Amino acid sequence: MKPFSAGWLAAREPHDQRARNPAVLDALAAAVAGLSSIRIVDLGCGTGATLRAIAPRLRVPQHWHCVDNDLGLLERAARLEPPSGVAISTKALDLVRDLEAALDGPIDLVTASALFDLVSDAWLERFVVETAARRLPAYIALTHDDDIAIEPSDPLDDAAIAAVCRHQRRDKGFGPALGPGAAKAAVARFERAGYRVIAGRSDWRLEPADGEMQAAVLDVWAGAASEEGGLPLAEGVAWLTRRRDLVAAGRSAMHLGHVDFLALPDRNRQH
Ligand SMILES: C[S@@+](CC[C@H](N)C(=O)[O-])C[C@H]1O[C@@H](n2cnc3c(N)ncnc32)[C@H](O)[C@@H]1O
């Protein structure tokens, strides 16, 4: 079953928008500034959040090719009314089977948001090899890591969070997921491939006023921790109840770590 509903993506988009690292975005805008136009492939596009976030910052005519294996999400991306100077096409592709096809053709930039924590080390290696073979730059945003904190603390937070991190390493369709280790692994692989990488944090800070999103995250975590056997059932239920009560009382805050990076190929490098 696919866990990415349009409702969930819509709920997280404003948090992602706020969190995107401005220095990485500036580096991306600077990297494309000299081009007369740019062709972008957005992998795992969902409903088009990456386009909405960065198209207005790239001050050149753009063609976005949005790729996903969820037809319902793709249909929403296809219906986007793009800003002036931006054209969109969509394609249903399974990035496990058809990664190379997604990267073929006239492309100047690869983008992905909230995707890389799902992928396996083997897929990541394949992605870096294929991207480097085509000398493509890559903007990879909002990959979560294990920099997680909740306030005020509860004695069972650590056990719950550890179980969530283990759950994030389960197979999400790409083989065993890199989960919280994905961003570090991706940056290291691109650097080994001769890329210059500009990385920065894009952490979510959920304040007491973000109660709805906090409650949604806690529900997902409680489900994951229970599937992982991280907390005995009664303790898990009690933990979730205590945490939700703090959210309802406006006394809870959460910090969820993410990383953004831009990987730029060395244009002079020979294979
Ligand atoms: C967490 S969502 C992020 C969506 C969007 N980039 C955003 O930031 O809102 C991950 C996306 O990857 C897509 N996805 C997951 N596995 C995929 C695969 N094997 N092939 C293509 N897309 C995939 C999902 O359908 C979903 O749209």
What keyword list fits this structure?
271 residues; eight-stranded mixed β-sheet; Rossmann fold; alpha/beta
General description of the model:
The chain is an alpha/beta fold and 271 residues long. The protein has a domain at 6-146 and 174-205 and 257-264: Rossmann fold (3-Layer(aba) Sandwich), CATH 3.40.50. Helix content is 41%, strand content 22%. The protein contains ten helices and eight strands. It has helices at residues 6-19, 22-32, 49-54, 71-78, 99-103, 121-133, 157-167, 182-192, 211-227, 233-248; strands at 38-43, 62-68, 86-92, 109-113, 138-151, 196-201, 204-206, 253-264. Strands 1, 2, 3, 4, 5, 6, 7 and 8 form an eight-stranded mixed β-sheet that branches. Helix 6 links the parallel strand 4 and strand 5. Helix 6 (121-133) packs parallel to helix 8 (182-192), helix 7 (157-167) packs across helix 9 and helix 9 packs antiparallel against helix 10 (233-248). The longest helix has 17 residues, at 211-227. The relative contact order is 0.16. The model has no long low-confidence stretch (mean pLDDT 95). Residues 2, 4, 9, 44-46, 49-50, 68-70, 73, 94-96, 113-115, 118, 173 line the site of S-adenosylmethionine.
Helix fraction? 40-55%
CATH class of the domain at 6-146 and 174-205 and 257-264: Alpha Beta
Rg, Cα atoms, Å? 19 Å
Low-pLDDT ranges: none
